[in-house]
Amino acid sequence: MTEGGNVRIPIHKKIFGLSLSGLVLCTLSLGGLALYFTSNILQKRSQEFLENRLDAELHKLEPIFTNVEHYANSISAFILSDIPSLENFKQESIRDEITEKINLYTTASLSNIKNATSVYLRYNPKFTLPTAGILITKNRETGEFENFSPTDLSKYDSDDMEHVGWYYLPTKIGKPTWLLPYQNKNINAYVISYVIPLIKFNEDIGVVGIDLDFDKIIQFVKRIKVYQSGYAFLEDENGNIIVHPTLKSGTTLKTKKGFRILRSTLPNGMAFGIQVPEAEINAERYKLLVEIIIFAIFLLILFSFISAMVAYSITKPILNLTETANKLINGDMKVQFKVETNDEIGDLSKSFQTAKDHMQEYLGQIQGLAYRDTLTGIRNRTAYEAYCKEIDAKIANRQMGELGIMVCNLNNLKSINENYGHDNGNAYLISCCQLICSTFSHSPVFRIGGDEFIVILTGNDLHNRGDLILQMNEKMNKSTIAEKTWERLSIACGYSLKDVSDTNVSMVQKRADKEMYRIKKEMKESRKGTPANGMSAINALMQGTRKFGV
């Protein structure tokens, strides 16, 4: 239909078009903001995690090298301070006295240096015999440090790194030096050496050096895992690989697309780094982004449907809704949809408000990743599932020690809710929760359902479970004399210990769940006959049946 040569558009279509446009813009704006901020937050958080992990591992390695430097420096300072003149040093009796002091000191204290395999004091063969000095090496069979015959410096060329490079290279450099890892054929060990040239009166007196077992450092680096497949590595000061899970020593680690590399320098000049696939770093980020997109699409569909329903209603309040929606589009999340007409516009206003509140709540969940149960304040099912994933990973890597799973189910909750109201039911539920948490105070407790809790028994709680269960049953028995029904606590529980054959937490939980239902059934049958006081369950537990209840 036309009017005056112009196409006539029904007013309800205009309203629908306007509403739909505003809704699309609102959804895209909020969705875009959510995508942008969430992406940035998670990106920053992943980078901080990697940096913190690098620093943590670095702080484990650094003391190994700094302790060696301090130890060698103290020996060097002691020797140089004990030589009054070069002529005194050339006297064999003076050298023997210094040598004996160092021998006594290092023999008594070298075991305090982590990963140390040998320490040596060697004199310049220009002033002494080529075997003069001391060599203290760890006996691999006994683990004790013992004196060995020093290497004869005259038998090898000065460029023979595997036999005498530890002497000639630092004296040539003229300052304390960390040597690159090498096979020391004198003691038949793969080591890294820190050597200090002893220089006094402008003369090379000799050297003091300490060898570290580099195989142990290699083992430490190779044990480091970041995310699922990330790993650590060591490079020399020129960027050549020293330790790497796949690359050969001496090659260069090239930056690959799809991987993130972080490095930091160790006191000996080596670079310690970690390399992690970007896909693993961003896995959580991608998952959340997909959820946001799906949620945004859902909101768009929902709002479109609502707009179509209210498009036929022509009322003034729609202008107020449009104005409020525009403020929301501009990012004002404090706006409130307050149109309260008793018609479709009023319903749309409520829908807008609910959708906005849901989006705010959802964004808060994304940023905070809340794991708390709102009623009891303890961790919820989501937290339990995340915790189980961590334990499953430890089980898979054979790093999980003793573990017990206890499933607790509240008795009479449904009856209390029906007969005394949900407020008293909630009070009963919180009291039971507090009893479980206070009894097993050193173990994590989760509420995984309306009346079901799970306790992961570890440490002292696991070892003392018999005494703790007895305490819990005594408290429940005492509560049976309470005047109010919801103050009489009754919990059916069953637990199971992790067996060697268990490959995940779920297997342990299923056994515990089965035991819980079994004891719950026994309690129910007991109430039909003789009233239960909980002691039969305690006796059963002490006999190893893995269950109890009151």
Helix fraction bin: 40-55%
Report the span from N to C terminus: 79 Å
Low-confidence stretches: 530-550
Q: How many helix segments?
A: 16
Helix/sheet category = alpha+beta
Estimate the strand proportion.
Answer: 15-25%
Shape: elongated
Strands, total number: 19
Outline the biggest β-sheet.
7 strands, antiparallel
Report mean pLDDT, rounded to a whole number.
83
Radius of gyration: 37 Å
List the main descriptive attributes of the protein structure presented here.
5-stranded antiparallel sheet; 19 strands; disordered C terminus; 550 residues; 16 helices; alpha+beta; single chain; 7-stranded antiparallel sheet; elongated
Task: Describe, in plain words, how this protein is organized in 3D.
31% of the residues are buried. The strands form four sheets. Strands 3, 4, 5, 6, 7, 8 and 9 form a seven-stranded antiparallel β-sheet that branches. Strands 10, 11, 12, 13 and 14 form a five-stranded antiparallel β-sheet that branches. A five-stranded antiparallel β-sheet has the order 16-17-15-18-19, with helices on both faces. The chain has 16 helices and 19 strands. The termini are far apart. The model is unreliable at 530-550 (pLDDT under 50). The longest helix is centred in the N-terminal third of the chain and has 71 residues, at 11-81. The protein has helices at 11-81, 86-90, 92-109, 165-173, 214-223, 278-281, 283-310, 317-329, 344-368, 381-396, 413-420, 422-439, 459-463, 465-479, 505-528, 535-542; strands spanning 2-3, 6-7, 116-123, 133-138, 145-148, 177-178, 182-184, 189-200, 203-213, 225-226, 230-235, 241-243, 259-265, 271-277, 404-410, 445-447, 452-457, 491-497, 547-549. Helix content is 50%, strand content 18%. It is elongated and about 110 Å long. It is an alpha+beta fold and 550 residues long. Helix 1 packs antiparallel against helix 7 (283-310), helix 1 packs parallel to helix 8 and helix 11 packs antiparallel against helix 12 (422-439).
